[in-house]
Amino acid sequence: MEYMTTAEIREKYLSYFEEKGCKRMPSSSLIPDDPSLLLTSAGMVQFKPYFLHQKQLDDAYIGTTTVQKCVRTNDIDIIGTTGRHLSFFEMLGNFSFGKYFKKEMCAWAYDFSVNVLKLPAEKLYFTVFEDDDETIEIWKSLGVPESHISKLGEDDNFWRAGPTGPCGPCSEIYFDQGPEFGCGHPDCAPGCDCDRFLEYWNCVFTQYDGQEDGTLAPLPTKNIDTGMGLERIAAIMQGVQSNYETDVLRSLVAVGERLAGVTYGENPEADLSLRIIADHSRAVTFMIADGILPSNEGRGYVLRRLLRRAIMKAHLIGIEGPFLNDYVDEIVRLMGHVYPEIIENRELERKLILAEEDRFGATLRQGQAYLEDALAQLSGAVLSGEAAFKLHDTYGFPVEVTSEMCASRGVTVDMEAFERCMEEQRERARAAGAKDAEAAWSTYGGVHADVLKEVGPTKFVGYAEVEAEAHVLALIANGSRVNALSAGEEGEVVLDVTPFYAEMGGEVGDTGVIATADMVAQVIDAQAPEKGLVCHRVKVGSGALHVGDAVLASLDQERRARITRNHTATHILHAALRRVLGDHVKQAGSYVGPDRLRFDFTHFEAMTPEQIAEVERVANAEIMRAIPMSIYETSLDEARAAGVTALFGEKYGERVRVVEAGEFSRELCGGCHVGNTAEIGLVKITSESSVGANLRRIEAVSSYGALEYLNRVEAELKETAATLKVPLFDVSERTAANLKTMKEIQQKAKRTKETVSDDGISKLVAAAVPSKAGYPVIIARADVQDGGMMRTLWDVVRARMGEPGAMVIAGEKDGKPLLMAAGTDEAVAAGFNAGALIKEMGPCVKGGGGGKPTMAQAGGKDASGIDAALEVARKTLL
User: Fold this and answer.
1) How far apart are CA 548 and CA 541, in angstroms?
2) pTM (2 decimals)?
3) 426-451 pLDDT, tens digit each
4) Would residue 541 be called left, alpha or beta, if left means φ above 0 and alpha means ψ between -120 and 50 degrees?
5) What single DSSP character describes residue 504?
6) Rounded to the nearest 10 degrees, what angle do helices 268-289 and 324-335 cross at?
7) Percent helix, strand and coil across the chain, each to the nearest 5
8) Among 134, 268, 507, 647, which one is least packed by beta carbons within 10 Å?
9) Three-state SS letters, 408-450
10) Torsion (CA) 848, 850, 853, 857 in degrees, nearest 10
11) 3-state secondary structure of 79
């Protein structure tokens, strides 16, 4: 039996079944499509539609083969205490949907085990369902001795999806690790609780349909569903006794050894922590990569619990500060080539993990100190539920972590009291929410509640109608009820029927007109200060409005149309954001007006320009598909069962309104929407920003708003192009060039200013020395960028020298040398010749130049010769 790495085993398995005609499929997400499942925990999950004949495999294939990433935490308390239990593991599998069955599967399983993995045939043992003689005969025909085949009952070797439905016998393959691992009983065999016989492959033969009366009816197609734990077979192939000693997990244990400064195998308590952190770090990495984010419910709670349990265990072995990203780096190195999503989402993993470590680490010491005090004061062996609740509520300790820490001291937690505290907290939250809601409406005064009690709720007909005949039931002005509103007065009008939508769910209220034959009132806004009561904020333009008047209420149709387009656009954008960024995106607030829309959502980093562009592309593609909208009422339970998106934090009654844009977007919503997505025309995102921790905001425009926005952008672009005198689409390039030029000019001006500053000039003048002819001369390097700066410098130096003299300076720009010599008329008369001197200096910098006796300049190619050129000047003049 040869040693094989985990990567080698994984590839050999997939290649083997690929060669047999199976289609190699990628692992599905840890977030299953099946809403009944919290996490993906088996390879067959993604193939349920195939088993149920809802999807068909291409005829070119006889089945599928995968390596599926899985997470199971139902036995989280056991993880690390044994060598077999893991929260994250890889499951090798191959599946058939009627194309091959027992005979082929058994033959391939035996062949792969013996001829590919090179497992000794004499060490292989097989269990079968007690009534499955067919499989027994197949194993025997392959050369398996009858003594290596065991019959087990339904609990061990018969798989059922439930009381009824698909089911069938299974056959498991075991590896004999030797009698030294066994219990010593003479009847020890596969199925025994000891560790001698290690099950590594389970082959399920789904051939029956379980009936309500307990009978088994044959399925029309017989299926294969197999699973081989990769870590378990790796332990066998690598000759180790524990999954944690296999190559991948042992590398992660080594990360902990390095961080904690401990050695695995020396201390059982430290070893336990090292195993748990190694295991949990893989689960955390893959869960985040698949879009699961830390929270206090569902999958997010599982993730947060794993994160915090790993942090707790690290703290116990002396690992301080953020550390989990060290594990993630190693996981990416070991597994990134198989699962590219952990590479693609590395930054998200890093930021989320750091955020959780910071959040939990900040309170960890305080929480532990509190727990130590509570335990020290115990008179018995039960920690109060109130103490456990405080650890949960104040310090963020999951109650499971508290229970574990207490258990290590022989103490239990009063869970009944803890749950009672939790329920009291929930009641307080509900009461606070009710008070907040009451406070929100209190700005309208108690008059609205009185009106609602007297006249009842307003009948809203605005989903289908844009105007309605109605009667005035009440008038309110300055917080009090009145009998009439006259021309020029403002107030609130309550009607029995209205087409006006009152502001709700982020959608602004309608505006329009309420009129009689001799009165016109402009509706400025519509609000619902009490649930069911629509109040129209009006300003009377002419005539007078009285309680009891019969009126015609007409809303501003163009404005309403813009609002509906923007509202449906928010739904489309919501779905597009989830499609592009992931299912962790949830609505956290919105504004829907006639001119624009705003959408707040959960996300943990700024969107990239590419992501924004892709959201726009996806959204507009759906809009242009001209999808008819479907709007209907149903029960909340039915809507949830159908997978309709419920908005975060929203409260719903038993009956809800569903707004659907085909299969792309399905949300619970009470707002106004278009009849077809094509009515939106176009949606354009105008900004993306942060509005708080883990919250992002996009602002957008649609329909006429989008056209107005694009026209405005175009007008600005045309104006800029005209100013720059370039074609429209060259504006960006020309602007960048101009900015570069301006920056160079600014830098040049700054250097010139520094060069001719008092301090700089004083240093140069002080460096002057007498020449052979007696006049003072300056020979030096200077921070000059061109000839103009050199000439300016000479002008300033000449004025400061106050006597006849000369100057020879050198500088460089972009690696090219610059030389200049200049002198006063008196210096020239005394023998100074700038032109002749520059000709002598030029060859030193592989260049040349010339000029008059009073001033000459040169350039060159070799700035390394500047010092030599200046030395020529010194020898000539000094």
Assistant:
1) 19
2) 0.55
3) 676 555 433 333 332 233 347 898 89
4) alpha
5) B
6) 70
7) 45, 25, 30
8) 268
9) CCCCEECHHHHHHHHHHHHHHHHHHHHHHHHHHHHHHCCHHHH
10) -70
11) coil
